[in-house]
Write a structure and sequence with these properties.
With 424 residues, this protein is of the alpha/beta class. 40% of the residues lie in helices and 18% in strands. The relative contact order is 0.13.
Length: 424
């Protein structure tokens, strides 16, 4: 005799199958939002890999806490389309093998809707193909590598930083504008970071415009030989493709040698509060006076975005030290919230990607975002910041890089609206 439960289940399954078939035949029909991984009626779950320990922790461990604090601020106001954003943060120690493990956990066990702000070139590149194969939105990678801008090969991946070529070219052009004829040298990480930054410097100055070039490995904390070689070469302006820890190491090592060139750093290693903590609050104002860095986010000490982020930091991040990492993490959170709002009331992974590619996202940078179907880079230019009397701020010089040249442009900062919560 046929089991009534089985018969009922079969009938129900048949009706459901017929409904799905009918739905697919209708052009205006879509699957429920609950079918998307990481989406429920009241939450959106996203994840990230971050160096909470390891060689990059000193410079970057606080970024994800700032992003999470911003999401708590958004959630307190009702979230986005009524959904709270949950941010799952996993430590990879800046080790690519560990990155692969934790990202698989995020995708397969935590079933995240998207990956957000995965940090580091060597780490994130190790999971790039995996995320593409699994159709996971891979948003706003925390690295300036140009490999994130590959719409054809990695259609779900988008950068967040101005890329290293842009930063190298802009800093080199600023040097040429301010100190024409000086001996310009480069000290960089021995990977894509250093190589692409050098490419940008040479774009602005020509291959013969670089007097000397030295590199370092994050596994070796002794840079005495490299700094000594730059000193011996007579370098006057040293452009740094360094993470914060190695920026401090380079400046500190040079100081011990009695050498004080002009330092110009990528945004990845140019945060004054972080450097001051690493070098010592007593000596940093002396060693870093006149220190130059590139940036593209609202870092002016008196800016409205900074004021809001300070308030969020105090209330939702236990009043943690406020620095460039705080601004970076919260700015990334804001951009994701903006993309999520644009993805619609019942977001899917596809609608999230469409929202980023739409060209309508504004972010909160000092220049317009470049996102589009054929461009997955974020910013094509940067502003120049200088440290004076212990304060780091923009000086007005802003450069865009494209078509093989560097051009001075006017900044176009995005104003604060809706108390820093994207309207949905």
């Amino acid at each position: 005799m046929r089991n009534p439960r089985t018969a009922a289940a079969g009938t129900t399954a048949g009706i459901a199958a017929a409904s799905v078939a009918a739905c697919l035949a209708l052009s205006g029909c879509s699957t429920p939002a609950a079918a998307a991984p990481g989406i429920s009626d009241d939450t959106v779950t996203v994840g990230t890999h971050q160096p909470l320990t390891g060689p990059a922790a000193a410079g970057y461990a606080s970024i994800s806490a700032a992003t999470k604090a911003y999401f708590e601020y958004v959630n307190a106001g009702g979230g986005v389309h009524g959904r709270s954003i949950e941010y799952v943060v996993k430590d990879d120690g800046y080790n690519p093998a560990t990155t692969q493990t934790v990202v698989r956990e995020l995708v397969q066990e935590d079933e995240v809707f998207a990956l957000l702000g995965g940090l580091g070139t060597p780490t994130h590149s190790s999971v790039l193909d995996y995320l593409t194969q699994n159709d996971v939105p891979d948003l706003f990678v925390a690295s300036g590598s140009t490999m994130w801008d590959d719409p054809e090969g990695h259609p779900n991946t988008f950068g967040f930083n101005a890329d290293y070529v842009v930063e190298g070219a802009a800093l080199a052009q600023y040097t040429a504008d301010e100190h024409a004829g000086s001996k310009v040298c480069v000290f960089g990480q021995d990977d894509d970071f250093g190589e692409e930054f050098l490419e940008g410097v040479e774009l602005a100055l020509g291959a013969d415009g670089v007097t000397a070039h030295e590199s370092y490995s994050t596994s070796n904390q002794d840079v005495t030989a490299q700094i000594g070689a730059l000193q011996a070469a007579g370098c006057e302006d040293v452009l740094l493709a360094t993470v914060n820890g190695f920026t401090a190491l380079a400046v500190g090592t040079a100081a011990k040698m009695g050498w004080s060139p002009r330092w110009l750093a990528s945004s990845s290693g140019g945060d004054y509060p972080t450097l001051a903590e690493l070098l010592g609050e007593d000596v940093a104002p002396v060693l870093l006076d006149g220190f130059v860095s590139a940036n593209y986010l609202p870092f002016g000490p008196d800016g409205e975005w900074v004021e809001l982020f300070r308030q969020i930091n105090d209330e939702y991040n236990d009043g943690a030290r406020f620095d460039g990492n705080t601004v970076y993490g919260m700015s990334m959170g804001y951009l994701f919230a903006e993309a999520l709002a644009a993805a619609g009331e019942d977001p899917t992974r596809e609608s999230l990607i469409e929202a980023v590619e739409s060209g309508k996202l504004e972010g909160n940078g000092i220049l317009p975002l470049m996102f589009g179907p054929d461009d997955h880079s974020a910013f094509d230019g940067v502003g120049i910041t200088v440290v004076a009397d212990g304060v780091q701020d923009y000086v007005g010089a802003t450069y865009a890089v494209g078509s093989g040249k560097v051009t001075a442009v006017e900044p176009q900062p995005v104003p604060l609206r809706h108390e820093g919560v994207p309207s949905s």
